[in-house]
Amino acid sequence: MKKIIIPILAILIGFGCKKQEKLADAYGNFEADEWLIYPESPGKLLSFSVNEGDLLKKNQLLGSVDTSALVLQREQLNASISAIYAKKQTAGPDISLLQKRKEVILSDRQRVAKLLADSVATQKQMDDINNQLAVLEQQIKVAREKVEIANKSIFAQVNPLRKQIAIVNDRIKKAKIYAPTQGRVTQKFVNAGEVIAPQIPLLKLAKMDTLFLRAYFSGNQYAQLQLNQTVNVHIDPDKTYQGKVTWIAEEAEFTPKIVQTKEERVNLTYAVKIAIPNDGYLKIGMPGEVWLNSSSKENQPKEK
Fold first, then answer.
1. 3-state secondary structure (DSSP) of residue 158
2. Confidence grade of residue 16 (pLDDT, cut at 50, 70, 90)
3. Which of 290, 214, 268, 219 is nearest to 246 (CA)?
4. Can you tell me whether residue 242 is helix, strand or coil?
5. Residue range 60-76, pLDDT digits in tens
6. Rounded to two decimals, what is the model's pTM?
7. Which residues, 6+ apart, have CB-to-CB distance to 122 below 8 Å?
8. CA separation (Å) from 236 to 10, 215, 222, 277, 281?
């Protein structure tokens, strides 16, 4: 009888120990913040040195769009501006003639002033010369104003062309494609030689320095969760990370299909995002399990 009782006791003890093992508080998969990167300038993609899986640095040059048409457009605009400046009016022959007459009158006034001092010329002669000089100066002023008005009309045509050149220069600058942030290329949608447009994405970029475990907690656990709460996340028996709760769903939902059993999928749960600094080991889609501090693996009863 003793030989039979001992194995039965061993089985019961083993069963009791297994029953004490706790399951994780929640399960989920890792995801990352992702961006679709669009071109800022349309045209033929001359180069695009990007492959899926590449880790990009912020402001890294990825490729360029053909700008030959834009460069030609800029040259044409500059030529138009040069042609407009060629129409600029200077003093012109009328003003030159008036200036020469003014020089003659000024010379006559000096001569009459000397004669007037010697009482040879009269004051009326001096007054007549001064009147001629005043009329002549007014004529010169009017002629110059006409030139300024004409030039203003000419220069007014230049400003719109300069604005067009600024737009073209901006498009040429935007023809260079840079990585907006550091991240890993998860999808590539175009290749060099294709014609691209601003509404067509070039690639999808995932920010990998911090990943998020989207896990699902039951309604009974909801009260235990708080924003900025620190939790333990286990990837495998030898990999444990500390994460911080960054988002808690306000409404319950049916557990998604990624959860293991059909029975669990019909239960209502709350989605939670947990931010975890990535040391390079974590990957998008990798499964993980969450242990609240009160139920951490370190706090589990050990097998006897």
1. helix
2. very low
3. 214
4. strand
5. 999 999 999 999 999 99
6. 0.61
7. 116
8. 29, 16, 25, 17, 12
